[in-house]
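<context>
A single protein, sequence plus fold
<entry> Chain with its tokenised backbone below
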Amino acid sequence: MSKKNKTFVSWTEINELLDAIQKQIKESGEKFEMIAGVTRGGLIPAVMLSHRLELPMMAIAPGDPILPISLAKKTLIIDEIYDTGKTMQDLKQVNPMTQFAVLFHNVGLDELEFYGKKMRLDNWLVFPWE
């Protein structure tokens, strides 16, 4: 684990971030057919968002050989954090049309379509499911 200071994220904050993402999706007019959660940290937000949007949900892992087949539908990929950008870059290479949502979006990175909060991620975020 990193030597960064820890910031603990509450379930209340998780719900507020998902509220913000859900509102952005509604305002965008996008109609998704599937929610995909990035293993491991994106799985719980994916389940929660799939219930809110009443959409099916699947788990995906960057580098999975069946990933391109899995993303054949109009899919929103969600992860808990967009820190370095590597995971999202890898997924974008597989399907450039895929859209993304994250709970926490690090400033200074290319902007994703949907996010709960944009901030400088100086601390190590500890989520309630960890």
